[in-house]
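S1.2 Input.
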Amino acid sequence: MKNLLLILIFLPEIAVSQEHSFKAVDRYVIWQKVFEGLADQIHHPKLKDGSVSKLSFRHCPGTSIFMRDDISFEYQIEKKEDRFRVTIKNISFENSVQISLGNVFTDSKSTNFEDYAIRHRKNELRDGFTHQKNYKCLEELFTKIFTPKETTISNDDW
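S1.3 Output.
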């Protein structure tokens, strides 16, 4: 009976376990992950000088509406032996809004991820269903971008 009671107490905590690499630090959203391999094997055309601007990505179903357009962020890579750590911050999304008041035009604005992901009074990440989908979608995107690619050596001298 005691075991059943303990399981019932801790079951909600287990069910809502964190399956992403995001954390809240001083009211900012930080994504941090360690990868095995060499940072020199990261090959993505949008990675330039510690920032990515207007990267288009596939929309993930069930995520927030502001995550439908291009993403921008800053990143830092720290190397250590045969692994490296990527830290991403200042995540924002470019949103195009069409307004029809006699005329149709597009107004482009930037949405900071912190505005929707941080519970400011407690300085913690929001954990609702849509937020979990947002984290999972971005986790997959960032992991795909920063996972080292094996370089293939072609032997043209045959």
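S1.4 Remarks. The first helix runs from residue 2 to 15.
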